[in-house]
Structure formats: structure tokens, C-alpha cells
Design goal:
Helix content: 10-25%
CATH superfamily of the largest domain: Spore Coat Polysaccharide Biosynthesis Protein SpsA, Chain A
Distance between the termini: 48 Å
Shape: globular
Strand order of the largest sheet: 5-4-1-6-11-8-12
Length: about 400
């Protein structure tokens, strides 16, 4: 199709930490294929073969991936500074005028976007938001529709008491030149927060499309996306063979005596003898020692090492191996796990005091960090976890 197409691939994907500490979210694999690759291939299959990709966080890794895998028609553009979803689209150099199809580069979907493009052209809309239905709409931008697809209300991540629709934005839009001209040339500007609310009643339309959509926003979303794709629930991804009900990368190693169920084992990871893991995620290059237990919803950071007999996700002590690659964010994630489970034990060493408790970081040698945490109030677990992942930066 002749429409200009832009993929937004510049975000940090903080909610998907620690998986996004070493790799940008668009390159995180689903059924062993990077999300960005799935999106590009799906767009090309639908006829959108002239694509620009706006990149920011870990831009070089995305540029390298695109350069190695796509030779013509796919271009990358580096953000000079964070500009938000609307700002980054505005800054992509124009190769043609007219409407622009905007697609988030870190979601998993198989929607037929040609229907949205045709609807937009036929309605005379200033902007068209592609919609789907979700049972938990508070996590997304919710939309109410009037006659002929006119959007009568748009709220970004509302509280439950303010929810009046299960229609949510997919992060996929068709926008006119007039809308792009509204976006300021400097500073951050977001479609959902800064642009669309002002277009309600002034040419903002929505179209609900049938099909699969997952924003892959959290580790649990990521695990679900992998299993859905692997089992044929996503038309844009080739079905793959599961390993004992788990998605296992081709270059990962799982001991025959390990018992894994509903897990995602990423590239280069090693699962030792007698390991028990249920609905867990093991990051790329991580090493899980013999007889370890990974509890449901646990997420082991890339390149981390769990020593034998560790219970991860249900114990206050975890040892992480840095081997030159595990950085402070992964250490912070581990600390977050400790706080989240209400650890009450501390060792001597570097002490960090926060309003939710204390964290001790002990360097036993140049490669190993022993992390322990003490939470003042177990009810603050969720807030403690988020703060730990985003806020601790004492180890380089």
C-alpha cells in the first residue's frame, strides 16, 4: 500500500525489566522471533512495505538487527532526544505526504490494518485509533464510541471508578498531515496524553478490529504472548513445538531431569538438573543451578546465575553473577523481588535506607553480589518492587 508507515520503537520498556535491561523491548523474542521482526513481517505481508522505524533506547541494537535482516524498504531513524510517541513520529523525515499509519513496535498482534486504513480514508477522520476489547481496561487508554465510529471519550489509564468502556487503544493509529502539524517540534509529546484528547469531537474516530493483540507490557504478558504464539493463537507468528509446555529458545539448554511447565526460557539460558519451574521466565544467558525452584511469575534477569538449591521468587536471598554483563538494573530487579516477598533478614555491607525498608548489597568478590532486603511493611510490596527496579543505582 502507498500509505506512509512508521513503527515507534524508541521506548525503554521499563515494566518488562529486567528483560529490557540488556535488550530493547522491540527485540525481545516471542516464540523465538523478535517482536519487531514479527511486526515488520506482518506489515509487509499486508502490503505496507515502505516502513520507517523511530528508535531511541539502545538504538544501535535495533539498527543492527534491521540492517542484518531487511535490505530494502525498511529504514531506521535515531531520536536525538526522547520525544514521546507523537514527537518521534513527527521527527521522522518525510518520504511522502498524506496519511500516516503509526504502529507500536513492541506489541504482538495479527490485526488486519488495511481495514483501518480504508476506514480512515472513507470517514474523513483527522485521526483513527485502532481498538480492541480488554477485560482489564484500566491498564490502557479507554475509548467510548458514538455513531459511525466517532470517538466521544478518550481516557488514558483511568481508575476503575471512571471506566465506562472495555474498548482500548492498541497503540496503532492512522493520522492525517494536519494532526502531525499539531505536534510541537521540541519536547515530549504523546498521542494518547497530549494529542487525542484535544481531537475528541474534532475528527477523532475509532475502529474495532478482530484478532489477537497483546501489549507485552509486563513479564506475565510476555509469558502469555509466548505461549499464545507458540500454540497457534497468533496468526502473524509461526507455531512452534513446545518443550514440556514451555517455550525454549533453540540455543537454550534444559536438563532432561528438569521439570518446567508454562515457562519461557530465553536464548543461551541453562537449566540444571532437578530444577522445578512453573510459569517462570528465564532471561537470556541466565544459569539456573541444580535443584533450583522457580515459583510462578518469577523472572530471572538475563545473565544472572542462581546457585544450586535456590528458591527464586519465594526466598529472601538470591546470588546474581555479574560476569561483566549483569548491570545495576538487574541487581535492582533482584532487590525488588526480595522486598516484594517481605524479606526480613540483612547482612552487613553497603546499606541503603528507603522509606519502605532497607537493602543490603554485599560484594563477596568482583563477580558476585549477595543481595538481601528487609521490608518495614509487607503491604508495601508492590510499590517497593517498582521503586527498586527504577531507582537503585549504587553498583556499577
Amino acid at each position: 500500500m502507498g500509505i506512509r508507515t512508521i513503527i515507534m520503537a524508541g521506548g525503554r520498556g521499563r515494566r518488562l525489566a529486567p528483560l529490557t535491561d540488556f535488550i530493547p523491548k522491540p527485540l525481545v523474542t516471542v516464540a523465538n522471533v523478535p517482536l519487531l521482526g514479527i511486526t515488520i513481517d506482518h506489515l509487509v505481508q499486508m502490503g505496507f512495505d515502505d516502513v520507517d522505524i523511530s528508535v531511541g533506547y539502545m538504538a544501535d541494537k535495533i539498527c543492527d538487527y534491521v540492517g542484518r535482516n531487511y535490505k530494502t524498504g525498511i529504514r531506521t531513524h535515531k531520536e536525538k532526544e526522547p520525544r514521546g510517541t507523537a514527537g518521534c513520529v513527527r521527527d521522522v523525515p518525510r518520504t511522502k505526504h498524506g496519511d500516516t499509519l503509526v504502529v507500536s513496535g513492541d506489541i504482538l498482534f495479527d490485526l488486519d490494518l488495511s481495514r483501518a486504513v480504508d476506514f480512515h480514508a472513507g470517514s474523513g477522520a483527522a485521526a483513527t485509533v485502532v481498538l480492541t476489547r480488554k477485560s482489564d481496561p484500566c491498564r490502557y487508554g479507554t475509548v467510548t464510541l458514538g455513531p459511525s465510529g466517532i470517538i466521544t471519550g478518550f481516557r488514558e489509564k483511568p481508575e476503575w471508578k471512571n471506566v465506562n468502556s472495555d474498548l482500548v487503544s492498541t497503540g496503532i493509529y492512522v493520522v492525517s498531515d494536519e494532526v502531525l502539524k499539531m505536534i510541537p517540534g521540541k519536547g515530549e509529546c504523546d498521542f494518547a496524553r497530549d494529542v487525542f484528547p484535544h481531537l475528541v469531537g474534532h475528527g477523532l474516530y475509532g475502529i474495532e478490529l478482530d484478532g489477537y493483540w497483546n501489549d507485552v507490557g509486563t513479564p506475565e504478558d510476555y509469558r502469555t504472548a509466548n505461549l499464545d504464539a507458540a500454540t497457534g493463537k497468533v496468526d502473524s507468528v509461526e507455531k512452534i513445538r513446545l518443550h514440556d509446555g514451555s517455550v525454549v529458545a533453540p540455543d537454550a539448554s534444559v536438563s532432561p531431569s528438569a521439570n518446567i511447565s508454562g515457562c519461557v526460557i530465553m536464548g543461551g539460558a541453562t537449566i540444571g538438573d532437578g530444577v522445578h519451574a512453573c510459569r517462570a521466565i528465564v532471561g537470556a544467558g541466565a544459569k539456573i543451578g541444580d535443584r533450583c525452584t522457580l515459583y510462578p511469575s518469577s523472572c530471572v534477569a538475563p545473565n544472572a546465575v542462581l546457585p544450586p538449591d535456590t528458591e527464586f521468587g519465594d526466598t529472601p536471598t538470591v546470588t546474581g553473577q555479574t560476569d561483566g554483563t549483569m548491570n545495576v538494573r538487574s541487581a535492582a530487579h533482584t532487590i525488588g523481588e526480595l522486598i516484594r516477598h517481605g524479606a526480613q533478614e540483612c547482612e552487613s555491607g553497603a546499606m541503603l535506607d528507603f522509606d519502605f525498608g532497607r537493602v543490603t548489597v554485599e560484594c563477596s568478590d568482583e563477580h558476585t553480589l549477595v543481595l538481601r532486603a528487609e521490608a518495614d511493611n509487607r503491604s508495601d510490596a508492590a510499590l517497593s518492587y517498582k521503586y527498586a527496579v527504577r531507582g537503585i543505582s549504587v553498583i556499577e
